[in-house]
Amino acid sequence: MKEIDIRELGFRIGNAEDKDGGTGVTVILCEDGAVPGVDVRGGAPGTRETDLIDSREMVERIHSVVLAGGSAFGLDASSGVMRFLEEKGIGFDTGVAKVPIVASAVLFDLAYRSAKIRPDLQMGYEACRNAYPGNYEDGSRGAGTGATVGKIMGPHNAMKSGIGSAAYEVGSVRVGAIVAVNAFGSVYDGGSLMAGPRIAGIPASTEDLMIKGMEAKFRGNTTIGCILTNARLTKAQANKLATMGQDGFARAIRPVHTMVDGDTLFVMANGSEETDLSFLGTLAAMAVEKAIVEAVRKAENLGDDIPTYSQIDSGKLKHGLDIF
């Protein structure tokens, strides 16, 4: 197994963000269309076109997945993606117009900087333009610009997160994941706690705090992402792959899929490689888990008091809140 860059999977990926406003968009494009899948497990999702991805529905391919901040307002960014693709003549041919099929999911970052600045049509369009030169990078950009994790004690005791990616190649089969991590829970790298609510400046286990009696009240969360692969899949197989990929969420985020998260994972398959679905799902879960870790590891401080993993890891963080 070899690690590869997510951009080697043949999709166009672009970011656009407003760092002052603390929000952004990440767009994944496939002009010829990709076989889609989706799995929604969070209790508070914000999504678009997930019903269409059901294996029983007519449309077999989608042209984009959009990951955005802004809560439900951020779904507006998909309109900019539709406009961009329509201008390029890309979409499902209805006979009178080509309609781009754009699926999307949003996370809640309104409490990070400004609740009045959200991803909109123009930002979605800009992310598409950026996808052609390929400006995608992990970190606090795109959909991960306003992402934070570990919010059981409120947003001011959370830690900064972002968007991350990981991809693997085994023989001719490639699979990768892009994940914007805005989780209610704490994030782990294997068995090691990376990020969570801060007590005395140190990230803590959200599960432990819940066991001690704290409630999951803060509703500013959600982890969203997309699995990309060059495998040949049906819609039913792609939906199953999304389900298996959610195991990566559970490995890296504890707790996950809570009532105050809107966790959603898409699949886009655009290749012809034949492979065993169980094997592909195993790789996909590994990629999702690694992408979540990378989102936290590469998070950047955007000039505020919410620290990053690198700041805590290097001993730069000196103050925190002890609630006990």
From TrEMBL:
A Pfam family: Peptidase_S58
Range of residues in the leader sequence: none
InterPro entries xrefs: ArgJ-like_dom_sf (IPR016117), Peptidase_S58_DmpA (IPR005321)
Family: Belongs to the peptidase S58 family.
Name assigned to this protein: L-aminopeptidase/D-esterase-like protein
Species, as recorded: Youngiibacter multivorans
